[in-house]
Specification:
single chain; 157 residues; alpha/beta; Alpha/beta knot; 5-stranded parallel β-sheet; 5 strands; 20% strand
């Protein structure tokens, strides 16, 4: 199984980008993992929020493949502890999807089409977090899950 994180727009803060990349490298010691960046929309002043979500959704769909297990990172998704997330990851890896795809949407969330295509939604927190921070926090949680599953001392319960 390959893990993929699809994100809308580049990270503009090099510090967040460096930390995110560090955790992505660490994850790759356990499973193949990649981050795919969907370009941020340009000239959006004339577009409504729904139009922006629709266009972003169309670009996201181009990155998806048949057989992907799609998980949206959304504030309304289910919340899990790190231990529960690790168990969930183990279950998904054992179930055998070719790709486990996590998606962080743009500033207004996801289009209806992307919501319909998703297998489930996960929330890191009920608090609002910047998209740049969410990337960093989420890849750290994937790394933490891998260390939990491998009995390594990174996580303290």
């Amino acid at each position: 199984m390959k893990g993929v994180l699809i994100v809308v727009g580049k990270t503009t803060d090099k510090r967040f980008e460096a930390i995110t990349n560090e955790y992505v490298e660490r994850i790759c010691h356990y499973i193949p993992f990649a981050v795919e960046v969907i370009p941020e929309l340009k000239n959006t002043k004339g577009l409504s929020q729904n139009e922006q979500k629709q266009r972003e959704g169309e670009m996201i769909q181009k990155s998806l493949q048949g057989g992907d297990y799609v998980v949206l990172l959304d504030e309304h998704g289910s919340e899990r502890s790190s231990m529960d997330f690790a168990a969930w990851m183990q279950k998904k890896m054992s179930a055998g999807p070719k790709r486990l795809v996590f998606i962080i949407g743009g500033p207004y969330g996801f289009s209806d089409n992307i919501h319909k295509q998703a297998n489930e939604e996960v929330s890191l927190s009920r608090m609002t977090l910047s998209h740049q921070m969410v990337r960093m926090f989420f890849v750290e949680q994937i790394y933490r899950a891998m260390t939990i599953l491998n009995g390594e001392p990174y996580h303290h319960e």
